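User: I'm new to structure prediction. If I give you an amino acid sequence, what do you actually give back? Let's try with this one:
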Amino acid sequence: MKDEPSETRVDGSRLWSRLMELAQIGATGVPGEVNRQALSLEDAEACALLIGWATEAGLEPAFDSAGNLFLTLIGNEPDLAPLLCGSHLDSQPTGGRFDGALGVLAALEAASTLAGLGRTRRSLIVVAWSNEEGSRFAPGMTGSSVFAGTRDLHSIREQTDAEGTNLGDALDSFLARFSAIEKRPLGFPIAAYLELHIEQADQLEAHGRVIGSVTGIQGKKTWEIGINGSEAHAGTEPMARRKDALQAFARIAVALQEAVTSEAPEVMFTIGHLDVKPNAPSVVPAQVRFRMDLRHADETTLNRLGALVEQLIDVNAPPCATDIKRLVDAPPNTFDTDLRKGILAAAERLGHPAMELLSAAGHDARHLAKVTRAGMIFVPCRAGLSHHPDEWIEPEHAAAGAAVLLEVLENLLDEEG
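Assistant: Good question. You get back a string of structure tokens that encode the predicted 3D arrangement of the chain. For your 417 residues, that looks like this:
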């Protein structure tokens, strides 16, 4: 099967064409911008398009109860644990064309190539995980976390979006659109998991490399914080008597930024969402809700900073009250050593400069690494810009990533056990 190099068997033009066609689903009119959020009509349309392409190649579609889409190329020994490969189709509200989508379509391209070459020993499943981004229903990665058993289906169904829509209701409506598609049980044994993704940073670009073999993912903690004060007239309520939630937020934000970054310069700390009520120019703000994102590669440091964050909120909130809701508490993880080596070896064989690197961003592979051998392949993203309409990869890099993916998959699909 490997007499011919993988890069000559991957159809780079087809992969690129499909990336551009998929990007039209959720296109906003702003050049490059995609708004295709989880369990939306656009998400369903993207899944339908993917199913059409997959069935043309002979793959069999199925959903599970968490909304994950599985497209199976059946092997000669289907009782063997399959390989799983993919990413996600949902986007941020002002996202780009490649985050997640590249991993799904490159996996489909690899599976389509293998389907044309004849059956492999074990099955290969292309997966599109549900709600990776978490932009509509937070926290994200619900599909992969439920599959891996780190969260339960009931808890994710209780999540709501900004309009008050329940994830469970949205999920039921989404799955009802695919009533004719087979439903498979939630979670099953897999032999290994691979995910191709854009880097979302600029290390590959800066070092002139085309392929990244990802060593692991830095840890992440997120919170939703409520600050509760009292409404009052802006012209009559004395300053000393006010319970101004926005002023409390300002104190908290400054204290956190200064303390966290001075404690650990490598930390990534973000306040990415802010909601003020009543949000009227002549009324003292009574309530602020905001979300925070804290990341670090070292678990001990991450835990220490997480405790510091909550302490500083308590110290700086008075006279307002607070409620703290922890959304994500994900420790750093390391990917399988043999898969990492296999990615580097495949890149070398195909003539693509490669390097190892840590992922600063979170991915579904984080959860899969808890239940199986897992690995990730990165390709360069121009200027490291992602979650943005200007997100861009070169067509030849997309093809190179798919070729390396195919090479690694071929080595795994026929292995014993």
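You can read the tokens as a compact description of the fold. Here is one thing that stands out. Residues 245-263 form the longest helix (19 residues).
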